[in-house]
Amino acid sequence: MAASYLRQGMFRHVAAGVIREDVLAVAGEPLLGRPLLQGDMRGGRSVLGDSLDALRRRAAGELRALPPALRRPGAATAEPYPVMRSDRLVRLTAEVQGIDDAAALAQLRRPLAQHGAT
Fold it and tell me: What are the residues facing 18 on neighbouring strands?
């Protein structure tokens, strides 16, 4: 049985070896980029089969791929890391919330608030 968090998708866009943005999408929506959400555990056991060394290498690679301004813990950056909504998610959100004016739609297309800020 799939966990409820798998009803959405998160995709990472990488260019020239650097992570550029993540996109929150509707489950099953075909987007470019690497899917980030996947089931790793089933019945209390890992289904990936990766060794601890492989997991360490993957984590190190992800850290190297961060934009330079985000590689240091606590680094201050003028530009927050962009997390966007997919076009389909924007349309569904607008439909559910009854949004039909251009300004409100433009707001939905902006990066999601960082660290709980609005």
Answer: 15
User: Cβ distance 24 to 83 under 8 Å?
Assistant: yes
Whether 60 shows a pLDDT value over 90: the answer reads yes
d(CA 33, CA 3) in angstroms, rounded, equals 22
3-state secondary structure the chain: CCCHHHHEEEEEEEECCEEEEEEEEECCCCCCCEECCCCCEECCEECCCCCHHHHHHHHHHHHHHCCHHHCCCCCCCCCCCCEEECHHHHHHHHHHHCCCCHHHHHHHHCCCCCCCCC
Q: How high is the pLDDT of residue 56?
A: 92
Is the entire prediction scored with pTM above 0.85?
no
